[in-house]
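look at this one:
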Amino acid sequence: MKEDRPFTSRIVQIFLQGNLAFMFIAMSLAAGAAALYLTPREEEPQIVVPAADVFVKYPGGSAEEVEQLVSSRLEKMLYQIDGVEYVYSMSRPGMSVVTVRFYVGEDREESLIKLYNTVFSNIDQVTPGITEWVVKPIEIDDVPIVTAALYSNRYGTHELYRVAEEAMDHLQKIPDSARITIHGGERRVLHVYLDNEKLISHGLSAMEVIRSLKASNVRMESGVFEQADEVFRVESGPFLKDADDVRRLMVGEHGGRPVYMMDIADIQDGPDEINTYTRLGFGAGNNSSISHGSPSYSAVTLAVAKKPGSNAVWVARDVESYLENLRGSVIPDEVKVHVTRNHGRTANEKVNNLVTSLGLAIITVIGLLALTMSWREGVIVAIAIPVTYSLTLLFNYLMGYTINRVTLFALILTLGLLVDDPIVGVENIYRHFKMRILPGKQAILAAMDEVMPPIVLSTMAVIASFVPMFFITGMMGPYMAP
């Protein structure tokens, strides 16, 4: 009569036949290695929190007037949008900034469409005097993952800003790079300092000069004409290129003679007005060749963000590689580059530390079990750790999660739980082998029949204790879900 074994024992019996167990282990480890390499690594998890800033210009209005006539009305209008959780506002002379935040998990595209529809369908109800509406979405990936400071003893912040602009154009070519911004430094501008006495003597006003500048600083197609079987395109322009073009610009006529800009104004090509001061100094914790006793330097910072779901490690490596390749061509030798933030490097270090911890855990398990039973039992139990983690990383990759500080915490948390079940099973099998009552495979089946029900129940109890975390709402929900 065929022995009727429980379902769990039949599964164990299947793996005892042939090389199925070895094939399963090999395939699991290969899949885990591929998932570990392909899964994007980053510091923070991908949390969908649709939000946007609405910038409204109200020229001439005081902060109180902007709050009453613009911010308060816009807050009430935007709070009526379905799915909006919070609305904040900031009012200052001439401008209002209203921040809209939707509930966590709301679809980003649908939320932004609702926002745009609400804003632009109510333009006819806005306060008279409003000149411009701008809606700018906000994402967690707008936070830069790499910041690099350009500093020099020879160049000032204006020259460093121009170097950073050139470098930014090259960094835009990096795959999966997103918004790139420059912090510090001054833009290149043409300053036009009008002389009031000369303006009056030539019969001009400042507004006439401004209109002349706007009319001259354009380039557009004015029409076409045909001649001798050829078509000629006529363009007006070109744009004003430098200070000499501005100086030679005709802005009016007085006494039958043309009036040029150099007759009524002083034109200077140089940096914009200084709004911020940016310095870079090195302290005792600096690991570079610069000693901590060195002075601070003028600096400009390049900040690079990444696309959602992309690998921060790869993007950060590409940024460092591009910056290194720009040395000597775009970035002069007198300009030094110091990476002040690198989330790709820190994320990669944390993942590598986890792999190292797994290796130490395996060695520890083998050592402890070798002292109590034998090294063979220790190896069998230790195999359970990389196999289980490999399947977990594969499932993590297929579900679209990234490797970040939250998923790393979850993996570390389960490290102690992983070895409990195999230790119980292997220990009972070892006990049956020592008793020598049944032959090899039958002893294994008998041992697993004894401990499999409590192992399954304990595993289900652990799962049940963590399942409620999957249903946490609010901002903590996406953190706990992985």
About this structure: The mean pLDDT is 83.
